[in-house]
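Morning!

This is the sequence you dropped in the shared folder:
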Amino acid sequence: MDGHFSPLTGLAVHLQQAGYDVRWYVGGHYGQKVRQLGIHHYPFKKAQTVNQYNLDRLFPERAALKSPLARLRFDIYQIFLLRTPEFIEDLTEIHAEWKFDLLVHDVGFTGGVFAKHVLGIKTVGIGVVPLAESDAYVGASGLGLSPRKDWLGQRFLGLVRYLIQGYALKTCHALYNQYRRQYGMPPASDFVFDDLIHTSDLYLQSGVPGFEYPRQRISPNIRFIGPLLPYSKGKKWAYELVRKLSTFKRIILVTQGTIERDVEKLIVPTLEAFKNEPETLVIATTGGSQTNELRNRFPISNALIEDYIDFNRVMPYANVYITNGGYGGVMLGLQHKLPIVAAGVHEGKNEIAARLAYCQVGIDLRTERPKPTQIYKAVETLLTDIKYRENVLKLSVELASYNTNELAERYITTLCPKRPQTIPAEITY
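The structure's back. Tokens below.
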């Protein structure tokens, strides 16, 4: 999925340019993206490709799951755990052809821990979502609960964590341990996603401590590396478009990512909220969903509706960023000093929205279907309450202090020294 693939592209290109022999195992249309980066591509063979484009078609029953917990359990099963044997079969075949030393994978790739055992390689997990490690001060990941350091709060969070991991998601952990036994590994005592973190030789967390909850402890293999962002060639914006942006008093950037195809959730209410504000430009990026329909529905001079927009180019002009809570976009928005309105619940976006509210760099609307009045009020609050601007500026300074890809390379080099490439990078299959 985009949120799991795109953040790794910048790191992959950096490692290749630093002299590593980098190759990428990924399914679906992402293979073409890998080849466009000049990186050798290994496609999914046994593994089923599941992404935002075929998710509803493959699993139509998923749309009927309204509870965040029920959908989380479904996703853990179908998208992550059940793919594990398929991943291992593919990786074993690749390793027989090319004896790679190190597997760098996002946190959701369950094949990492098994590949480490089966193939005898080292692994680097990448946290492309907020740190999901269990801790006495934080709630069970996926519920969007605020941290608590007081005794009573810790007892409450501990009870919730026990109920979620020990009961609601017990079958997920049981399946994970079933696979561990299948591959000759002892059962994990840690919950499945804790074990995926703890068993990595290194776990590189996208983001900074300032955008993370206080914790009683953090595992010694975890390193914050700053905002891990997609590879960008730095395309130039047309002069006419830049000139248009400069004519408005304020600019609102809104997106609901690429997984969410229902524009009625966030894009439509944002356009409705500001359609009668001629000095406010709303820039909406649809991810390719109903772009022309939205243009016909909102034929107003203060709306710019596009399939895709280069955020690095538009964010310096924006005043507020409205999102359903994709982690990469949030990192980029904070890096560009933008206060954020978040309206996301599923796919772990409630965790990101809750952190925005906790750090007071944004407002969590706690819904996926906000009303135009809610959005309008949130934007006004962010623009008039100085604490949000001050906190965003402080966090942007912390984000800028991390040279992300070089820092990641430094950590990776401790596990895996460089060795000469065995094929030219431009050769693809």
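Headline: The CA atoms of residues 40 and 428 lie 5 Å apart.

More detail when I'm at my desk.
O.
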